[in-house]
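Standup notes, structure subgroup. Blocker cleared on the flavin-adenine dinucleotide input:
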Amino acid sequence: MSTHRSPDVAVIGAGVVGLGVAWRAAARGMRVVVLERAPEGQSPGAASPVAAGMLAPVSEADVGERPLLELGLRAAAAWPAFSAELGDKVGYRACGTLLLARGADEAAALEREQALRESLGLHAERLLPSAARRLEPALAPHLRAALHVADDHAADPRRLHAALRAAAIEAGVEIRTGADVERITLDGTRASGVVLADGTTVVAGQVVVAAGSWSGAALGLPEPARVPVRPVKGQLLRLRDPDGPGLLDRVLRFEGGYVVPRGDGRYIVGATMEERGFDPTVTAGGVYELLRDTIDLVPGIDELVIEETVVGFRPGVPDNVPILGRSPHVEGLVWATGHHRNGILLASITGDLVADILAGAREEAVA
Ligand SMILES: Cc1cc2nc3c(=O)[nH]c(=O)nc-3n(C[C@H](O)[C@H](O)[C@H](O)COP(=O)(O)OP(=O)(O)OC[C@H]3O[C@@H](n4cnc5c(N)ncnc54)[C@H](O)[C@@H]3O)c2cc1C
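Run returned:
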């Protein structure tokens, strides 16, 4: 990209959302710069490199609102083609998911969950514990009930993040690291670019805020123009089986957590949901709770090696529906944020939805 002309679009944030938007906007012929405050390869607390990678609209149907479910189902359907477009380098696994119950209370809750999904026209098959254990022999004998969600899969968010970065660069996007956006510049009521913490001004035709949990910061905007994004802290463990793959194949979800197999002997055990602002600490209680519930259901987890304990901040919004669209207050300002628990799932459609908005081909992403 030539440095002589200012970009059509400045994207704030190089998580999966910002990179996905930048890639798809560049593919439509726009000149795009991505501004990421972290130095290359590190972004403390960013959600994208921390996420578990479940692509699970059906399993999450009890958490979300109807528009989120519809968006999630579209995103899940788009994932195979999205993965193929990124050269199948994103660890996409069509592995399915088991929802598990231990005691009578959890089994009753699972029955209600199945009824809810049926009422929404979603498919979740009830399994006897013996059938669930035939699918996943590592499950503990005291399993009480299970639901098989055959269409909820998984991907590897770190590989996705790297693949999106490479695709964006290949499409001509300029990614500036160490570029901390202090504020969005306004020309009357129109966004005209941004100013970085070191005083550099970047002039741009349109500005996209894809700053994850930090999207709720003032960014120099008047109060009514801001969005209610808050950090929802998640602690998560990355484990490795020294004996290689084979302990588990499917994603397991249960009261208190989940396990996501990467298919290569590594397992993600997550995650806490904490309203603690930007507290970056891994706590003994958090790790204990995650391991207690997981080992209770899969005793073989006991033998695995802890490779990492990590914390990430989910960009939470009051109604759990991402904010994808033009600001009603500031012309030329577009929001791409609030993906909360589903940013990896929604990565398959977010880039195109927001790029369409930037190109003027669409007004809103979520009707
Ligand atoms: C523990 C955990 C587990 C999860 N599991 C799943 C899952 O299984 N499935 C799923 O679909 N989703 C999951 N998620 C959610 C998913 O990770 C997020 O929704 C998604 O990654 C959000 O991406 P983002 O690009 O908006 O934000 P981020 O990845 O947080 O990126 C935002 C970027 O903006 C940069 N930035 C912020 N402010 C500025 C500024 N002023 N100037 C310049 N740069 C700035 C930050 O440094 C950061 O790199 C999980 C999240 C967590 C924390």
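Discussed briefly. The helical segments are 16-27, 66-85, 104-119, 129-135, 157-170, 284-297, 343-358.
Next: hand off to the docking folks.
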